[in-house]
């Protein structure tokens, strides 16, 4: 049991991170913890004019930061990783308070930040381009990568800090200042991260200009300022497909760059040869973990008809026995939904599923917290076909289960939804495995074998296709999105041969 009110724990946690924000602003923006549904703080929201001023500061910072050598920029990120390590427990607790995650998931999110910082530090010495064969004698052709400009980062409530850091760590080593508009549901985690970052800046010294990293507290209107500002070279927006449909075209209108990380409708396929115990555990975590509020949560499951009677009763048992409760007070594996609207959306989806002949197991509200908190038993829904709510993302713990008999048909069904984020297959059959990963297999940005859909590592590029937005961030070569490429050709001869043999003698 907590020995102090949640608001006191919130204040203490923020203070430990070094944040000096006033948490009791009369008429301010209320921050509600999903753990209890109570208001834990009231903070000052920023205006559109504040957002514009932040972008201007970042644009000035860019002029300095782009000229600081990459490895030196990496040193700032290295120091930031040190500060994150020192504040891991506090930041993780902040995530639990604001997003309702378990301490282990909260700490895991901070670990992701540390991991991407470490990755970015190495990257700061590897921002290289190619030297390319040229057709002209006495010439050399190469490409160089330059800092891009101000990066606007918009993030969702369910991962209140890691996606910011996936972007910020790379942007900073690439020479770009960042302006962060976190979810209006989780501003405190952002303020805590900013305080931790400023500790690193303090140690780094004068090379870090003012305005290198800034946070904007407030709602979508502030995100729109970033979206529309010609001074923001890249918008990296994480959130719903609904938000991406607004942000994407607006950034395109001004020829800005966009990384869109939007909703998913992720599926698993369980084949006859699967290791069923392993599949069961992976599905349980993938579908129920974080109360179904991960972009990579498993939402659809296709089970081969020959093993349906083995795996579905076992899943029902796991669903019936999973512990639901306040993860800061109990060992519960499933925490709360973010708010009442999420609960309503879940109940609506279950109602639609029932009307289509779905058999719903679980899904009811659990009386484990105050009336103002929304805890639910995760729902397992046996569906006669892929229709209605199965075709869209409902951001809650609902797993729709369907049978299949033919492998080609299940691949078609797997891809027949709007989302294209994450996917997995459980099989020990090499052919099924390879087909799933092939050009006619899963059409998602993430395709896994014998692990679930969630829990990506930072080393790979993260993101998805179709209505997930097509963006990639984090590892691999995602850094290129934060830089601009120049192709340079140098003539070191005494002649002026033209490309393609063109003659133009004057
Ligand atoms: P949301 O779309 O409601 O909000 C996300 C962010 O966008 C918030 O900061 C919000 O203020 C901002 N926003 C909303 N409208 C905007 C507009 N018109 N212009 C600019 N900014 C705007 O999403 P949410 O409810 O916070 O998060 C859940 C959703 O995010 C789910 O769909 C989930 O799948 C998705 N998500 C995706 C990823 C990914 O990497 N693909 C990661 C986490 C969450």
From TrEMBL:
Pfam family, one: Aldedh
Active-site residues from the entry: 261
Sequence intervals crossing the membrane: none
GO molecular function, one term: aldehyde dehydrogenase (NAD+) activity
Source organism phylogeny: Bacteria, Pseudomonadati, Pseudomonadota, Alphaproteobacteria, Rhodobacterales
Keyword GTP-binding: no
Keyword annotations: Membrane, NAD, Oxidoreductase, Transmembrane
Subunit structure: Homotetramer.
Family listed: Belongs to the aldehyde dehydrogenase family.
Protein name: aldehyde dehydrogenase (NAD(+))
